[in-house]
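The instructor's notes for this session suggest beginning with a concrete chain rather than abstract definitions. Hand out the sequence below and ask the class to guess, before any prediction is shown, which regions might be ordered.
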Amino acid sequence: MTAADEILDIVDENDEVVGQAPRGEATARGLRHRCVFIEARDAEGRLFVHRRTSTKLVFPSHYDMFVGGVVGAGESYDEAALREAEEELGVSGLPRPEPLFKFLYAGPEHTWWSYIYQVRCELPVNPQVEEVAWHTFLTDDELTERLGDWPWVPDGLDAHHRLRAFRAGRAPAGDRRQSAG
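After discussion, reveal the predicted structure:
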């Protein structure tokens, strides 16, 4: 089974399941589904940053400051966050990512309910070669320096700005703080 064949729950504007579709169809038709974004930091507090492979279905060869991905049909946000973080970082035994908040990402071609998590990864990483073409750990200042220079995934950039506002005590429009379940 390829990534395009993975079955996803299709959800409405309230994040209620209204159907299911293969990932490739959901992407091609712009059907709203669920995703997780996990901010992974190392023992020194530096952020895991990577460039996606050129074979990715969405936003190939773009940089991202989150690991994560789609939530499979019947899977909870929390289950997907741990699975995706371990897969992309290439580790096992990662602490359960901490849920922070949920928001609706609506770009020109894609829309999905997105749950942001954070996790500390003190294990040596061995990123999944099918997902990650290049990686490093950056300080917050180093990341800020690169925001205008590198092509970033638009949903990750939106999530990054929302996370900064969240940490500053401002809740961007559309954010929902609730149990990830």
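Then share the key points. Helices lie at 23-29, 77-89, 140-146, 154-167. Residues 6 and 23 are 5 Å apart (CA to CA).
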